[in-house]
Design a protein that fits this description.
Layout (H helix, E strand, L loop, with lengths): L6 H45 L5 E2 L4 E5 L2 E9 L5 E11 L4 E8 L5 E8 L14 H5 L24 H19 L8
Antiparallel strand pairs: 1-3, 2-3, 3-4, 4-5, 5-6
């Protein structure tokens, strides 16, 4: 005997399919939650190693810095004597394709140690070069000049055909430097 197609049977069938799909999604989340957290922690640790001086030990627990109503995650790195060697500050600024998340290493005096793009959605081959163009990235190491691209009277060479992305990157680096300077030399003790 064939099942009769009526509203009740269709609703029960749809409910059953949704229940099974929800169970599968829930199980997938539970199974992948820990590996994703471990991969994120490893990526953060690697990024901290890239933007901070090699002779220091970074703290992997973020402390908040609030500046002008914006909260930044700040990781303190200490030298062998326990003194603050540098800070790594996570910033987000709006690029051409969306937010650009940066990790910026900053010495206590405000000089930049290094920068690393954590995530972006910039145009491949153009703005996406902000994560790979060594010439662009390396100009920030030890930087103490005016935080603006040359087109705007600053000291930073923009990525060719990616002025909006370059400006967003510079804005993110400048925000990190200002956040560290707002600590006034005390740091996260």
């Amino acid at each position: 005997m064939a099942a009769v197609s009526n509203l009740r049977n269709m609703v029960l069938c749809l409910f059953g399919v949704c229940l099974v799909c929800s169970a599968i999604l829930g199980a997938t989340y539970v199974v992948t939650e820990e590996p994703i957290a471990q991969a994120s922690a490893r990526a953060l640790s690697d990024a901290l190693g890239e933007v901070l001086p090699q002779d220091c030990t970074p703290c992997t627990t973020a402390e908040p810095i609030v500046l002008d109503g914006t909260s930044y995650e700040c990781y303190t790195a200490r030298d062998a004597g326990g003194n603050v060697a540098a800070y790594a500050v996570k910033t987000v600024s709006g690029g051409f394709g969306g937010p650009i998340e940066l990790l910026v290493g900053v010495y206590p005096d405000g000089r930049v140690c290094g920068t690393k793009v954590l995530s972006h959605s910039e145009t491949p081959g153009l703005g996406a070069k902000c994560a790979t163009d060594e010439g662009f990235i390396n100009q920030f190491k030890g930087f103490e000049g005016r935080f603006a691209v040359r087109k705007d009277g600053g000291d930073i060479d923009a990525i060719t055909a990616s002025t909006i992305t370059s400006k967003a990157y510079v804005k993110g680096v400048e925000a990190a430097v200002k956040a560290v300077k707002s600590l006034g030399g005390q740091g996260n003790e």
